[in-house]
């Protein structure tokens, strides 16, 4: 599944007046262009909420190839969620339930209410587990620091939480109160890729991301020695370098230990930060849409 944790179109919840009006032109283009990308689900974050009721309606109307969700953005008139609160998709024969949450941007927005995200999460977890009978629950969360700290403290059966807004990106996952949390930063410089190999659906996911990152780092160091040796065997290269030989052997032993640790994990889940670089080829239809927008 390809998921967006939120705050994907507007850059800040603090925009207002002409700045907000000008930014919304680009934001509508982003919402529309997401139809050209392979997203399954997009969480509507607190930055998007700042665009107001008309922008919420635009997202709902324009999203054709992806599902915008939010469990706690409520339409004042009907007191019902403005978007679907969650989305369920079968992946690999198992049902994945995805919930979207946002913090309150802290300003009055006519026609919109933001319910407490943690209380809303509790209610929707019950729906997903006992009504929809999902096998895994994924949370897409555009939460401010206060709500993020609250989320960390509560014991809720969320298997994986993907965080937007949180500035502290990490090259590996963190696990808090049984929740595995992934953070890819806030500036759109990285795509976070979570991969899991589930062997026993009765057991929890096992975070191997830190071990996998260490193993990858060690392997790069080992290869650098092999490149330095050139045409020589490693025995020849280390013949007059006893300290380097000891360091190489220590790294080799650590790599083997990490490899065994990773292989022994029952339901291993890994995380990688993929930098978005200029060297990555552009998607032709997306590039064409961007050029058309720039020329308007």
Low-confidence stretches: none
State the order of secondary-structure elements, H for helix, E for strand: EHEHHEEEEEEHEHEEEEEHHHEH
Sheet bearing the most strands, described?
6 strands, mixed
Number of self-contained structural domains = 2
The dominant shape is globular
Structural class: alpha/beta
Structure description:
The chain folds into two domains: 3-188 and 273-294, Purple Acid Phosphatase, chain A, domain 2; 209-264. Strands 6-7-9-10-12-11 form a six-stranded mixed β-sheet, with helices on one face. Strands 1-2-3 form a three-stranded parallel β-sheet, with no helix packed on it. The protein has helices at 17-33, 46-49, 53-62, 117-131, 145-153, 209-229, 234-238, 242-264, 284-294; strands at 3-4, 41-43, 67-69, 73-75, 80-81, 86-91, 94-102, 112-114, 136-142, 160-164, 174-176, 179-183, 190-196, 206-207, 268-275. The mean pLDDT is 89. Helix 1 packs parallel to helix 3 and helix 6 (209-229) runs antiparallel to helix 8 (242-264). A hairpin with a 4-residue loop joins strand 4 (73-75) and strand 5 (80-81). With 296 residues, the chain is of the alpha/beta class. Helix content is 39%, strand content 23%.
Topology:
Layout: E1 3-4, H1 17-33, E2 41-43, H2 46-49, H3 53-62, E3 67-69, E4 73-75, E5 80-81, E6 86-91, E7 94-102, E8 112-114, H4 117-131, E9 136-142, H5 145-153, E10 160-164, E11 174-176, E12 179-183, E13 190-196, E14 206-207, H6 209-229, H7 234-238, H8 242-264, E15 268-275, H9 284-294
Parallel strand pairs: 1-2, 2-3, 7-9, 9-10, 10-12, 14-15
Antiparallel strand pairs: 4-5, 4-8, 6-7, 11-12, 13-15
């Amino acid at each position: 599944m390809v998921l967006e944790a939120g705050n994907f179109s507007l850059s800040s919840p603090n925009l207002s007046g002409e700045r907000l009006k000008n930014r919304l032109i680009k934001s509508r283009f982003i919402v529309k262009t997401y139809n050209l990308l392979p997203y399954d689900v997009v969480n509507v974050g607190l930055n998007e909420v700042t665009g107001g009721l008309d922008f919420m309606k635009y997202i709902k109307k324009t999203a054709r190839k992806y599902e915008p969700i939010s469990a706690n953005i409520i339409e004042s008139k009907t007191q019902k969620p403005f978007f679907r609160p969650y989305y369920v998709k079968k992946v690999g024969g198992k049902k994945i339930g995805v919930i979207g949450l946002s913090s309150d941007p802290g300003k009055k927005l006519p026609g919109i209410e933001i319910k407490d995200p943690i209380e809303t999460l509790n209610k929707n977890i019950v729906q997903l587990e006992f009504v929809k009978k999902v096998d895994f629950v994924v949370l897409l969360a555009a939460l401010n620091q206060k709500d993020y700290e609250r989320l960390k403290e509560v014991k809720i059966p969320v298997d994986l939480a993907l965080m937007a807004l949180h500035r502290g990106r990490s090259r590996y996952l963190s696990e808090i109160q049984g929740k595995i949390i992934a953070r890819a930063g806030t500036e759109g410089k990285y795509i976070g890729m979570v991969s899991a190999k589930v062997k026993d659906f009765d057991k929890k996911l096992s975070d191997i991301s830190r071990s996998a990152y260490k193993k990858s780092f060690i392997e790069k160091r080992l290869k650098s020695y092999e490149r330095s040796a050139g045409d020589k065997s490693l025995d020849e290269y280390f013949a007059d370098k006893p300290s380097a030989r000891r360091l190489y052997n220590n790294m080799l032993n650590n790599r083997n230990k990490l490899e065994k640790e990773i292989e022994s994990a029952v339901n291993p889940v890994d995380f990688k930060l993929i930098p978005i670089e200029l060297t990555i080829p552009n998607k032709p239809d997306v590039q064409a849409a961007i050029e058309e927008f720039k020329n308007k």
